[in-house]
Amino acid sequence: MTMATDKRLHDRKFVRTFFTTPTAEKGEDDSAKKLRGAIGLRGMQAPDVWVPDNEDATAPSMREEGAENIAEVVAEDGADFPGEIHPRVVWHRDSPETRYDGFQQMLTIADPQKGAVENIDGFVIPEVGDIDDWKKADEFFTMVETEHGLEEGSLAMSVIIESGAAEQAMTKLRTEMGKPDNNLQRLFMLVIGEVDYTKDMRAITPTGSLPEWHEIRHNTSSAASAAGLIGVDGPYDDIRDVEGYNERMKENQAKGLLGIWSLTPGQVVEANTNPLPPQEGYWLIDADGTEVELDQDGETWTYRGGDISLEESGDDYVLTVGVDEMELDEDELRQELLDMTSYVPSLDDIVDSMEEFEAAKEAGKGAIAMTRAATISIDGVEIDISSDRMWDEATYQALQTPITLFQDVYENRPDQHEDLAEIYSEDVVERAMEVGS
Amino acid sequence: MTMATDKRLHDRKFVRTFFTTPTAEKGEDDSAKKLRGAIGLRGMQAPDVWVPDNEDATAPSMREEGAENIAEVVAEDGADFPGEIHPRVVWHRDSPETRYDGFQQMLTIADPQKGAVENIDGFVIPEVGDIDDWKKADEFFTMVETEHGLEEGSLAMSVIIESGAAEQAMTKLRTEMGKPDNNLQRLFMLVIGEVDYTKDMRAITPTGSLPEWHEIRHNTSSAASAAGLIGVDGPYDDIRDVEGYNERMKENQAKGLLGIWSLTPGQVVEANTNPLPPQEGYWLIDADGTEVELDQDGETWTYRGGDISLEESGDDYVLTVGVDEMELDEDELRQELLDMTSYVPSLDDIVDSMEEFEAAKEAGKGAIAMTRAATISIDGVEIDISSDRMWDEATYQALQTPITLFQDVYENRPDQHEDLAEIYSEDVVERAMEVGS
Amino acid sequence: MTMATDKRLHDRKFVRTFFTTPTAEKGEDDSAKKLRGAIGLRGMQAPDVWVPDNEDATAPSMREEGAENIAEVVAEDGADFPGEIHPRVVWHRDSPETRYDGFQQMLTIADPQKGAVENIDGFVIPEVGDIDDWKKADEFFTMVETEHGLEEGSLAMSVIIESGAAEQAMTKLRTEMGKPDNNLQRLFMLVIGEVDYTKDMRAITPTGSLPEWHEIRHNTSSAASAAGLIGVDGPYDDIRDVEGYNERMKENQAKGLLGIWSLTPGQVVEANTNPLPPQEGYWLIDADGTEVELDQDGETWTYRGGDISLEESGDDYVLTVGVDEMELDEDELRQELLDMTSYVPSLDDIVDSMEEFEAAKEAGKGAIAMTRAATISIDGVEIDISSDRMWDEATYQALQTPITLFQDVYENRPDQHEDLAEIYSEDVVERAMEVGS
Fold first, then answer.
1. How far from the centroid of its chain's Cα atoms is residue A124's Cα?
2. Minimum-distance CB partner of A211 among B171, B215, B255
3. A231-251, pLDDT tens digit by residue?
4. Same domain, C187 and C75
5. Residue A368 domain-assigned?
6. Domain count, chain C
7. Same domain for C101 and C206
8. Digit-coded pLDDT (tens) for C271-327
């Protein structure tokens, strides 16, 4: 029996959302209640990757039942779930007993008799160590596949990076993947687990908050890029702090780390939406060190905060930023405002620019200037500004990432078409699907 | 003859302090005077690791005498010294002559005839290059051991990371340690040497101050974690700047780099104390970008700075942070203050929370909410706030690091028991030694 | 035929400037016009490394002609060009076709019949992947050399780091360089290409600006240091933003990344000048988080900004920084100002300090205090401050980098002697060439 599971393997070039759900809870009539809830999610509430979590989210004593629950729930409703399904099983680099348990859980969940495996895309392995520990897990995947008549390599393997050893393993992937004695090509996501990483690194902060961990985020993103994998950041614990969660994603995106863990359907909505370009473009101004969005009124963009003030003084202007006062003539003021402002393009704007560049390229030009103009208003004083940006092939390709992401989402998530059309309008969506191909 | 030196090898899981002392000074009646002073240190003034420094701190012409001095002073008083003793000898990746000198210095210091070696825990090797250079040093350790009838691998080896080559060597430790042709399992501390690293990297700052070097600190901490070693940051030159030294340690701790070089007994006291939890918990407020400690008066915590002001305005409140003015109702104000404040738990608080979680776990609960409440007072206006934090097994373990450190200190440094009891009270110390085991 | 090209290979220990020029432009009477302009540059406008760019700066259809143009222009005027010449050819880790084209371009440019190769120092290879891809390029260099009767290894190879794979390759250089099956010792510069790196990492920023990429800059600098190579940062697109370009260089220098790409002769002047010490030393003050230069009037240095104010109040002083007000006595004020200020030494100052330390060393002292004094004036109130800094051998060597750089520039760029003498005076230049040797 050969199953076509590999048709789905690595279909996704992007993963925005990695949503975990406990697999079995004591004291409920139906211990799989949360799994049944999660598998019913659709649209922006449904994650790109759903992770029935048979590790930390589920009590140790409930994990055997959890594995059975996963198989049962996925067998029933997995075919209709719009994202990929990657259960997390137990594993620990320091415990053969835990590793054996993880192997058993995979065998249970992937058992074709239970009817779930056709909709299981892979497994997530936590607490991995150095590369040889990853190979042990890979070998169990291979055994699960041969034991259950699945194609070798068809189950994707993702790992949680939560130790210094795993951080180092990531630099060895290019050397190890593709060797005849393993099937590490099955690797799919590198997911950071900051809480356990903090423990393994023995880091301390006064308030017990998580350190920033800039480097592990960079290293994961770079290793994912080098090995053709997908980087995903760990959970953001303060569920109420929507602003902080979005801020974290913005930071991550500048590192090329486009996916993030979600703990609730609310976080899934945020994380599915955040990496996509905004519906409307807008201007930012650097208000004494903080980027502030300007208020739009037609072509005029008004600053209403207290950190910047502007007044006319004869033919000149007095611009005050924080406690710094500058006397400027009109040209100097325009230049200063140009330096202080920047434009965040909408999906529509990006598509426009790309189309314009594509047309120029076809006409034989290698580089063109893209102009962006606005009227900035501060304290009732209005100034027109206009900035040019050179686009060449490299700019075009580097700025294409949000479009490629959009296209990947659109192709793989028909259940989000309606939401996308509502956010962006049918027309923009259609043009976004055409551009850059 | 077999010596039981390995009983001490890697006894310490943590090293807070790495204190260097010149080994021989010209023009003194007793050239070993500073060594005799340092070996007499006790309590918080005594470092976890004492480093008689036969390299940079001692003039080249005095180093032969320095090696003899180390042997003599450690033979006399080493048995009573409360920390470990790891002399630094000379070494350079680019100079066979220097490496040979280092070998001779080790042979001298470890000579059993001189009676010091029983209290020598290992040696510190500066200026190492890539991993093959580390192996040359390791081979000399082995020769010193066999020549002097010590057990192979019984002398710990620590290195100073002060070149790009050494930075790269750290990623190879897991592959190289444990190979039959070396004894690199003797590795103990990875110590950063920022001054020479700056030279090797050819970095320039306008004022000649040291660069921040975030990445080498992360890379050292991560490599230490991956290879079971201990990371130690380099010297902080501005001895008068106690605040800056403590700030540096706080930064380091968030990277998992819990040890630091100390140049004076005063710095040793700071660095022995800083990583331990405070005696009393306290609230912080984010005052326009700077974390400020609030003043306690019973349950009320008062902000006395100039960056935040608060006044009532009818049923509402006007909260001003820097130049930003917000009109808020009571709930919004409470939420805003909750976001702006955070609590730094005392040792007592941490022990309380851990005990509470352990009790909950025994009662079958996997996660509990820890509540922290306070009254915040700004400009005479008082607001009660209360924050919940979810603790699960991972939180528990990640927050355990300061306790594990405390326990390691308590077990290995009986000479600090009195100081610890004075800081924390006998009762808290006792409970801290029980929790988490 | 053996050519003495290797006499120039790696002559330079430093590269400040990497200046690219399109090799062939359609629609011009002379498609090589820009090349002819660039090769005529002299003095501060001439880069340390000139890169006729047969890749991104030149349209694909013009690259065959571009290779011929390079050969022709360098044959004519290369002997008089004051910097090194390293043309960039095409390459891509994912395209054998592009790699073959790059090989052909190298064969064309280095053809001795064309008379250019004596003044070609090497080639720049863009878009490299992991180390095995670098070896493919190296092998083509070897073939070009043997085919054209050049000494093996005589053509330097530089690469553009613009992928996660290349980032990882850099950690393998020490293991791979020097192996008998390659000539990777020909490696010279590691140049970052942030635009394509951003694409490869799939990073997104809201405005489309480039991410900071601190880690790739550190990793490149560290790998260059470990392998004896030279790190160069990528292009700074906003050509008008001279301040931003200089800010970027300052950041880079603190990472040991002393070279940067230049897109215009104006940028070349900035980048040739920036890493050299200033002509006149000056004091900085930390004005509420921003470093501000004080105005000199003899020994008095005056703060004229709005962020700090100072007034006498009886015997005491009130110092206000931002919104923080401090009442201080004279000693406290002096200490506070000492902490807030720092001195940027001129070339003259650095030479003075080094000479002083060298004299002290000869007199048998290992460490001396260097004193720096000034009168600080704020709001008409004047305070004398004086700071001591300990110099030992390590300080001396770490602070020597700008001098070593100066000496490298002076030795290799006779065409800049006049400019340097004008900036610093003949006397200072002469002493700077003597010190530290």
1. 17
2. B255
3. 999 999 888 889 999 999 999
4. yes
5. yes
6. 2
7. yes
8. 999 999 999 999 999 998 888 999 999 889 999 988 899 999 999 999 999 878 899
